[in-house]
Amino acid sequence: MRQQKIDLHSYTSIGIGPKVDVLLPESEEDLFSFSEQKIIGNGTNLLIDENFNSNLICMNHLDSLEINENLIYAESGVLLSRLIGTCIRKGLNGLSALAGIPGSIGGLIYMNAGNIGKNSSLKKIRCFTKEKGVYDIDVPREKFSYRKSPFSDDVIIVGAFFEMKKSYGERVFEDVKKAILNKKQTQPIFEKSFGSVFKNPESVSAWKLIERCGLKGKEKGDAMISRKHCNFIVNRGNASFSDVMYLIELCMEKVYNEFSIMLEKEVVVLRGLNR
Ligand SMILES: Cc1cc2nc3c(=O)[nH]c(=O)nc-3n(C[C@H](O)[C@H](O)[C@H](O)COP(=O)(O)OP(=O)(O)OC[C@H]3O[C@@H](n4cnc5c(N)ncnc54)[C@H](O)[C@@H]3O)c2cc1C
């Protein structure tokens, strides 16, 4: 198994983080040699403190993709964009509505991004734990909820089995284009961010609450609450972990004071010691 120093400042989509030692499993066998460490996928839903200095396991080298007619096995490090590109070429539909989410298959399932846990194309999930080793499970659909999967931190998602609907490449391409266009119009997808900062409370969108508190465009250092979508914080240059945390806490405080609603973070925050 490879070990490498990775600069999380350039690896994560928000562009914040230290250089750390990262273990890069390249096969299922490699997973057996880990002790308890934090997993990262493609780093698109993470905010990592510059003082964070634990080892990480990065799943992006476990990235083989097997296709047999409309059946697909994707290892956890396969990016959704690559899987969707393959589906366009092969004329396979089922995941097009998720196009534009920049995560890996492992991150997607762990975060239940795009509600993947309820997607009927996803048939089985391959998992790993120290106790059980590698094992496959049927998708426990009822246990997935909004931005939440049933997996605890000791489970590594190794891969996923999909059964896609046969279609036509042009048709799949059109569906994908529609999903990406919708994202382009509503989200700052060309700026550095980690996607939505907060989960939407039950009856209202988090961005509306933040906007109503007058926080649109609010800045701290190079971090800014996006003018395009108030539930995004963008890094316009050299924003630090504390700049972003300041804005996150400000949103939580103002929204609570104004509406008595406690916003819950969607972004996964990895803090360093003493923070
Ligand atoms: C511009 C932009 C748009 C976005 N749009 C959306 C959207 O529309 N909908 C949406 O839901 N999300 C969206 N996101 C958020 C993000 O892309 C998703 O949550 C994505 O699924 C995270 O995947 P990742 O591989 O980057 O995971 P990471 O950010 O690397 O990790 C996220 C979490 O998943 C865990 N994890 C990752 N891989 C594994 C694994 N193999 N096994 C166990 N745990 C694992 C990590 O420990 C961490 O807790 C967006 C982000 C950006 C930057």
UniProtKB/TrEMBL annotation:
The active site is at R147, S196 (proton donor), E266. It is found in: Cytoplasm. Pathway: Cell wall biogenesis; peptidoglycan biosynthesis. Its cofactor is FAD. Residues 172-269 form the UDP-N-acetylenolpyruvoylglucosamine reductase C-terminal domain. GO terms for molecular function: flavin adenine dinucleotide binding; UDP-N-acetylmuramate dehydrogenase activity. One of its GO terms (cellular component) is cytosol. It catalyses: UDP-N-acetyl-alpha-D-muramate + NADP(+) = UDP-N-acetyl-3-O-(1-carboxyvinyl)-alpha-D-glucosamine + NADPH + H(+). GO terms for biological process: cell division; cell wall organization; peptidoglycan biosynthetic process; regulation of cell shape. Coiled coil: none annotated. Transmembrane segments: none annotated. SUPFAM superfamilies: FAD-binding/transporter-associated domain-like, Uridine diphospho-N-Acetylenolpyruvylglucosamine reductase, MurB, C-terminal domain. Keywords: Cell cycle, Cell division, Cell shape, Cell wall biogenesis/degradation, Cytoplasm, FAD, Flavoprotein, NADP, Oxidoreductase, Peptidoglycan synthesis. Its EC number is 1.3.1.98. Its main location: cytoplasm. Residues 39-118 form the FAD linked oxidase N-terminal domain. Cell wall formation. Belongs to the MurB family. This is UDP-N-acetylenolpyruvoylglucosamine reductase. It comes from Muiribacterium halophilum. The gene is murB.
